[in-house]
Amino acid sequence: MTITAPAAPAPASLQRIVALALPALVVLAAEPVYVLVDMAVVGHLGRVQLAALALGGSVMGLAAWLGNVLAMGTTGRAARRFGAAERLPAVIEGVQASWLALAAGFALVVGVEAVAGPLTRSLAGSGPDGALIAAGAEQWLRIAALGMPGILLTFAGNGWMRGVQDTRRPLYYVIGANVLSAILCPLLVYPAGLGLTGSAIANVAAQTIGGLLFLLALARERAPLAPRADMLRGQLSLNGALLVRGAAFQACFLSAAAVAARFGAAAIGAHQIALQLWMFCAFALDSIAIAAQSLVGAELGAGLGDQARRTADRIGRIGGLLGLGLAVVIGVGAVALPALFTTDSAVRAQALIVWPWFVAMLPMAGVVFALDGVMVGAGDARYLRNLTLVAALCGFLPAIWAAYAFDLGLGGIWFGLTMFIVIRLIALLLRMRNGAWAVTGATR
C-alpha cells in the first residue's frame, strides 16, 4: 500500500515553539545555577578553596562543551527520523550518541587523571597562594572528573529526547540531579567536614545519577542497544563539523579575554561582567535555537520542505523579538547592572564603553541564534562550521588584535564581537533565502 505524504499544515505555532523552548531554557540554566550554588558553598571555606574550585571547574567545562556539541548533532538527526514517522530509529540515534558519550567520557577521565597535577599547577601560576590553589584544584579535579561520563550521557539524552519532542522528562531528570547535588554539597562540605572533596563528590553523584536516568529512559524505549557503525559515522561527521565551530568560538573568546587583560584590571573586570551577562542572554536565545532544531528537523524528515521554511522564518522573527526585548532590559540597566557586580568606579566606567555594543548586538544575535538552530536541525553543520571560521578569521580576531595594536580599548574588542555577529547574520539570511539548507528526508 502506498502512503501519500500529508498536506503541509501551517508552520509551528508560537505556542508549540514556546512549549519546546521553555523547558529547554530551564535545562540550560540548571547547570550554571548549580555552579553558582557550589561557588557560594565553597566560597565560605576561603579564597584559596574558591580559586581551586574555579580552576578545576574550568577544566570540567571541557566536558560540558563536548556534550553540547553532541546534543546539538543528536537533536537534528533524531528530529529528522521522528518527522519521518521513524520513532524507533530516532531513539536508536540516541543509543549511538550515548555510546559516543561513554567513549568520550571515559577517555576524558583517563586524560584528566593523567595530567591533573601539571595542568592545575600551570593554571594556578607562581603567585603567593599558587601552590595551595594548585593542590586544592588537583584534589577536586581528580574526583570530579569521574562525573564526566555522566555529564556527556546527560547531554546525549537531552539531544535525542528533544529530537522526539519529549521536553518534560529531560526537565525532571536535570532538575532532580541538580537539586540532589545542591543538597549534598553543603552537607558534605560542612557537617561531614570533607571541604573541597565534599563538593567534588556531590558533583560526581549528581552527574552520574543524571546520566543513569537518561540510560534508563533509553532502556524503557526497548530500542536495540548495540552500536551501529553507519549511525556512528553519520554522528561523527556531523559532530566533527560542530566541534570545529565550537573551537572557533572558544578561540575568539579566549583571545578577547587576553586582549582585554592587556588594557588593565578595570578593563578585564568590565569585560568579564559584560561577558557573563552576555552568556546569560545567550541561554535565553539558545532555547529558541533548540526549539528550531527539533521542529525544523522533524518537518524536513517528514518531507515538508515548504513548511520547514515557514517555520524557520517564524522562529527567526521570534528570536529577533526576544533579542530586542533583552536589549531593552540590558540598555535600561546600563548603570544598575554593573553596580551589582562591583563598586569600583573605574570598572563601571569601562563597562559603559562596552554597553552600546552589547545592546546593539542583542537583536541581531537573537536572529543569528535562532537561525543557527534551524541549520543544525537541517543538518547543515558544514555550512555553520565554514561560516563561523570565516566570521572569526575575517571579523572577530582581526578586530580585537587591531584593538590591541592601536590601543582602542574595550570598544575595539566589542566592535570585533559585533562584527562576528553581523557577518554571521548576513550569511545566514542569504542561506535562508536560497533555501539550499532545506533538504528533506529522514537522513541528510
Structure annotation, total helices: 14
Number of distinct beta strands: 0
Helix fraction by DSSP (H/I, runs of at least 4): over 70%
Determine the mean pLDDT.
90
User: Shape from CA axes?
Assistant: globular
Alpha carbon gyration radius: 22 Å
* Strand/helix succession: HHHHHHHHHHHHHH
The number of domains is: 2
**Beta content:** under 5%
Largest sheet: none
Subcellular location: Membrane
Family: Belongs to the multi antimicrobial extrusion (MATE) (TC 2.A.66.1) family.
Keywords: Membrane, Transmembrane, Transmembrane helix
Main location: membrane
Any overview of this molecule?
The protein is mainly alpha-helical and 444 residues long. The protein has helices at 14-43, 47-83, 87-124, 130-144, 148-163, 168-189, 196-220, 229-261, 265-301, 305-332, 336-341, 345-377, 381-405, 409-434. Helix 3 runs antiparallel to helix 5, helix 4 (130-144) packs parallel to helix 7 (196-220) and helix 5 (148-163) runs parallel beside helix 7. The two termini are 26 Å apart.
